């Protein structure tokens, strides 16, 4: 407990009066000092009791079903004082570090009587995509006499997952009607889908299904509505793998590669689904597949894809202690040694130090296990049917896994498309390029071209992208055979 200036002054005055009483043998001064000390002790014990008997019930609601980066989200909080003592102080709801209060207030300075409710409502804006957490409520407590203060924390956690920017989701929905992703061997006229559909089976009716797709003859037999399902002739089951390894999550400039990968994957998935290609998505890091949804079609499939992409780990900011080429070089060194799952607890310099301390030789055997295992599982489940795997990666932490997966796809007659996110294009803007920087960037591009040649040599397609590239541009490049 921290005594305030008033409490300290009261104790000091008591000591002075006691000293004067002893010095001059004056009983009145001694009595006054005893009174002051008694008041001080009483107030202290009463405040200690109030702190120990704190009994609050906190109910917090996130009022928006889907939370987007850089978009306001409404929060409502109710605090019930269940004890018989009044709580005085400033109540502060602890918003996440990457969020700012846009409207309303997350704090209130009041005296909360027994069995009464404090209501807070405010709007906060998360600055980036990924998981966020409101850890609890902080109360700057004061006693009834204004003598003492105490910083008290009431833990009441509320988790929320922030999705990508709303504009990216809107773009994905708009692209579904005008863009198409076609490979050789698939249907040639995606716009004329009626002539390319064939009966696939039946399923339970879902509100919103078209009346012409309802299997009316089954109504009399089963007593319930069933819907006929179709598939497109020549459609290939597709799985989009999103790399969420450490090198993808490190943010050195305007946008992190993992955020751009999530946007591209979401938009490409909706284009494929709208073209009647069964499509799923999986997010993986260096050691495991974090989450996935199996390929499918229908109205709900895109919602499932969006839900999985929301679970992708968020970006991590690198401490800005270096500038220009030195910062970029250190970032690339960290990425090449990224052999651990980049958890949210590892941030900043501590996380970078851990990664730099790993031996590349020991880490190499663990790189990309999640991608390799995920593709093997799908190939086994496909029972010989041709499948398409789209891998969105920077080919740094998961380089070996991509090469092994491409070799596996070639051996099993499956297709693979690598969307390579070139690291230099996601780095900081370098206003002045010295000779060393130019030589390094030239060497990086040469290595990337050699790696592209290796991937193409294994029968996979390849397209190199940067932060300015869009899913529409990728779809057009694929249709024109530029991959």
How does this structure look, described?
With 483 residues, this protein is an alpha/beta fold. It folds into 3 domains: 2-52; 56-162, Immunoglobulins (Immunoglobulin-like, Sandwich); 166-187 and 234-479, 3-Layer(aba) Sandwich (Rossmann fold). Helix content is 38%, strand content 28%. The strands form 5 sheets. Strands 1, 3, 5, 7, 9 and 10 form a 6-stranded mixed beta sheet that branches. A hairpin with a 4-residue loop joins strand 15 and strand 16. The protein is globular.
Features:
six-stranded mixed beta sheet; 14 helices; Rossmann fold; 483 residues; Immunoglobulin-like; 38% helix; alpha/beta; 3 domains
Report the CATH architecture of the largest domain.
3-Layer(aba) Sandwich
Which homologous superfamily in CATH is the superfamily of the largest domain?
Answer: von Willebrand factor, type A domain
Q: Could you tell me the strand content as a percent range? A: 25-35%
Helix content: 25-40%
CATH level 1 class label of the largest domain: Alpha Beta
Question: Could you say what the CATH topology of the largest domain is called?
Answer: Rossmann fold
Number of strands: 20
Uncertain stretches of 5 or more adjacent residues: 184-196, 320-368
Q: Biggest β-sheet: count, sense, barrel?
A: 6 strands, mixed
- What value does the average pLDDT take? 77
Query: Which term fits the overall shape?
Result: globular
From the N-terminal CA to the C-terminal CA, the straight-line distance is: 67 Å
Question: So how many helices?
Answer: 14
| Structural class based on helices, strands and sheet pairing | alpha/beta
Total number of distinct structural domains: 3
- Evaluate the radius of gyration: 31 Å
